[in-house]
Design goal:
146 residues; mainly beta; 4-stranded antiparallel beta sheet; 38% strand
Length: 146
């Protein structure tokens, strides 16, 4: 499937949301140098053995020329949680509503950009792996809310 597009412009409890990149090449690629960069979010168990809990589908950074297309060379290199003012947990205990993830990235090996994505959107993108109940694991691992 084609990756989702992330238009330009973490923490739920205490486990981390991370972004990772994948480069694919060869075959019928429209890119001059034969690569397509995509990214995905994932969560891990907050304590040893740090088991993978959930992943998102692959996504790409929207091109500045066309939001329906991906930048051919893109790499998300940093992510910082921006806490929202007056952010409160929802009735189901989720935190992260109203918060945004600030992503720093390189585009085409010549530009640096920043983008924000609401944490609510990140949590919607995550799908628990088979055998996992949720994209997040809280408690039972010696963690305390705080």
């Amino acid at each position: 499937r084609a990756p989702e597009h992330l238009g330009g412009d973490w923490k739920r409890h205490r486990e981390s949301v991370r972004a990772s990149a994948r480069v694919s090449g060869g075959g019928d690629t429209p890119f001059q140098f034969g690569s397509q960069y995509t990214h995905f979010f994932y969560t891990m168990q907050p304590v040893y053995p740090f088991r993978l809990l959930a992943t998102s589908r692959e996504f790409c950074v929207a091109s500045s020329q066309s939001e329906d297309d991906c930048e051919s060379v893109q790499f998300i290199s940093g992510a910082v949680l921006e806490a929202a003012r007056n952010a409160t947990p929802t009735a189901d205990g989720q935190q992260g509503r109203g918060q945004q993830l600030l992503l720093s990235m390189g585009i085409n090996d010549c530009e640096a950009k920043l983008a924000r994505i609401p944490m609510a959107r990140v949590w919607e993108m995550l799908r628990p792996l088979p055998g996992e109940k949720d994209a997040c694991q809280v408690g039972g691992g010696g963690l305390e809310e705080g």
